UniProtKB/TrEMBL annotation:
PANTHER family: ACYL-ACTIVATING ENZYME, BUTYRATE--COA LIGASE AAE11, PEROXISOMAL. Residues 25-405 form the AMP-dependent synthetase/ligase domain. One of its GO terms (molecular function) is (E)-caffeate-CoA ligase activity. It comes from Lactuca sativa (Garden lettuce). Keywords: Ligase, Phenylpropanoid metabolism. This is 4-coumarate--CoA ligase. Pathway: Phytoalexin biosynthesis; 3,4',5-trihydroxystilbene biosynthesis; 3,4',5-trihydroxystilbene from trans-4-coumarate: step 1/2.
Length: 559
């Protein structure tokens, strides 16, 4: 057996780049991309990728060179997911909501060789490039800048001389890309959201990206001819790998610039969208849409949601609108989703609220993860499958990142004893499904008891007047820490702190009841819609513990 050797015929490095070449043959005349008045077939998309890749090589790009891009969900960003790795380079899609300072920090840290900028983002990019130049004191080689003009209505470039469509025109359609020697080579560089610490540069391998893509199209049961609406930014973990996944399935990418309720509803009804991904924050956008922005959902729209905990009550409201929701959990380091709440048909018989509670759990590992567990971080012992004992969620498998770029210390901290530590705290239920309870930095330790902020938020969100809620620790003279709830109301002034606390007393164990409810207009959020709890903790430190009327609520009882 051992004498049977690997050869070019039976051992080919795994890479999602192969999906586009196959799509150009198998789905050649099928629509690959729709963006306003522009549309392409898979044959055309492949040809454009070959041309762009050729032009990139002509710009003296080499293996492992980083190509950064600042663009919304437009065809160019989609094409770059193939063209950049075809040229042997590494794609770095930058979060478009970042300010110039953060964009400059990413360009500097990644040592980007080429920087593609969508026309709408020229102002931020110009400032970022100036900051990069000033900050580098002549030591940093400035990236070559390529502007992406409006493909539907070209206006001409203002940032430098190179333009995207010109690179496509100048390219060679016969060029099929550099040969990938090693599937461990880097394909993408994505920076974390920076919710809990400074953003880190996460590096994906071709192999990891391939396997994650396969897992997710399987886990979500995405068939061929899917019509995929780009409601999730492609810069977020490469669109949770669906940039590559839609090509694998020969689906149609519906690109939109802005994720407004109107744009989403319009695209769904115009193009008969079948699939879309989004963070739960988009649910509120869709649910709160004005009457003239809404359209009735007549097609079967499957939504994959994740990135933050979706409360059961929110899932129920979305399903009532006609969407079919699958819940996934993941992180940048895991190439997007790592767990999917795989639905079991026997659950269809259960009452609706119970179904939604099951769906709000984060689920089981995606197919190509080798293992997942919840462990006591000190002993690294697995927690019992009792749905109660909390521990750190740990993952192992080929879809986990290669590591953090230029950060050996953080990489070593993230990988311990053969596991990737997620920094999330969860439980395992008797049926093996994992439920996240908190980020470890957000757990509230009150009088020695661990309180899950996520659990309290889910209860608060069931209250009809509450639109959004975030619970963080506030200092407490007796208990060390206590929960403090920040609440956004649907209608300002529609309730009082006393009423909300009375509601909490009814539905929470006493020691969990917040010691303060603060009404706010908006919650501070990251660019990706995650609540910035570190900011709220600072505010909570300045607030006074609620102490009246004592007859209604005995908040000093911590048992
Ligand atoms: N379905 C989900 N339910 C609850 N939380 C989720 C879910 N999916 C993702 N998350 C949260 O999002 C985190 C991953 O987010 P991401 O990789 O975008 O960056 P970040 O962790 O917010 O940034 P940083 O690591 O810089 O603080 C997970 O660790 C988890 O806390």
């Amino acid at each position: 057996m051992n004498k049977l050797a690997k050869s070019l015929a039976n051992y080919v490095p795994l890479t999602p780049v192969t999906f586009i070449k196959r799509a150009s043959v198998v789905y050649s005349n099928r629509t690959s991309i729709i963006y306003g008045r522009t549309s392409f077939t898979w044959r055309q998309t492949y040809e454009r990728c070959c041309r762009l890749s050729y032009s990139l090589r002509s710009l003296n790009l080499y293996r492992n060179d980083v190509v950064s891009v600042l663009a919304p969900n437009i065809p160019a960003l989609y094409e770059m997911h193939f063209a950049v790795p075809m040229a042997g380079a590494v794609l770095n899609a930058i979060n478009t909501r970042l300010d110039a300072k953060n964009i400059a920090a990413i360009l500097r840290h990644s040592e980007a060789k080429v920087f593609f900028v969508d026309y709408e983002y020229v102002p931020q990019a110009s400032v970022a490039l100036r900051l990069l130049m000033v900050g580098s004191k002549g030591q940093h080689r400035m990236p070559l800048v390529v502007e992406i003009d409006d493909i539907n209505k070209p206006k001409g470039v203002s940032l430098g001389k190179l333009e995207y469509e010109q690179l496509i025109n100048d390219g060679n359609p016969e060029y099929s890309g550099e040969k990938l020697e090693d599937e461990w080579d880097a394909i993408a560089l994505n920076y974390t959201s920076g919710t809990t610490s400074e953003p880190k540069g996460v590096v994906y391998s071709h192999r990891g990206a391939f396997l994650s893509t396969m897992s997710l199209i399987q886990g979500w049961e995405m068939g061929t001819e899917a019509v995929f609406l780009w409601s999730l930014p492609m810069f977020h973990c490469n669109g949770w790998t669906f940039t590559w996944g839609v090509a694998a399935r020969g689906g149609t990418n519906v690109c939109i610039r802005n994720t407004t309720a109107e744009e989403i509803y319009k695209s769904i009804s115009t193009h008969n969208v079948t699939h879309m991904c989004c963070a739960p924050v988009v649910f509120n956008i869709l649910l709160e849409a004005k009457a003239h922005e809404r359209r009735r959902i007549i097609s079967n729209v499957n939504i994959l949601t994740g990135g933050a905990p979706p409360a059961a009550a929110l899932l129920e409201k979305m399903e009532d609108l006609g969407f079919h929701i699958t819940h996934a959990y993941g992180l940048t380091e895991a190439t997007g989703p790592a767990l999917v709440c795989e639905w079991q048909s026997k659950w269809n018989q259960l009452p609706r609220d119970q179904q939604m509670r099951l769906k709000a759990r984060q689920g089981v590992s995606i197919l190509t993860l080798a293992d997942v567990d919840v462990k006591n971080k000190k002993t690294m012992e697995s927690v019992p499958h009792d749905g109660k004992t909390m521990g750190e969620i740990v993952l192992r498998g080929s879809s986990i990142m290669k590591g953090y770029l230029k950060d050996e210390k953080e990489t070593a901290k993230a990988f311990q004893k053969g596991w990737f530590l997620t920094g999330d705290v969860g439980v395992i239920h008797p049926d093996g499904y994992i439920e996240i309870k908190d980020r470890s930095k957000d757990v509230i330790v009150s009088g020695g008891e661990n309180i899950s902020s996520v659990e309290l938020e889910a209860i608060l969100l069931k209250h009809p007047v509450i639109l959004e809620a975030a619970v963080v620790a506030m200092p407490h003279p007796r208990w060390g820490e206590s929960p403090c709830a920040f609440v956004v109301l649907r209608k300002t002034g529609s309730t009082t702190e006393t009423e909300i606390l009375a509601y909490c007393m009814k539905y929470m164990s006493k020691f969990m009841v917040p010691k303060k409810v603060e009404f706010v207009e908006v919650l501070p959020k990251t660019e990706t819609g995650k609540v910035l709890k570190k900011e709220l903790r600072e505010v909570a430190k300045t607030l006074k513990i609620y102490n009246k009327p004592r007859k209604t609520i005995d908040l000093e009882m911590n048992v």
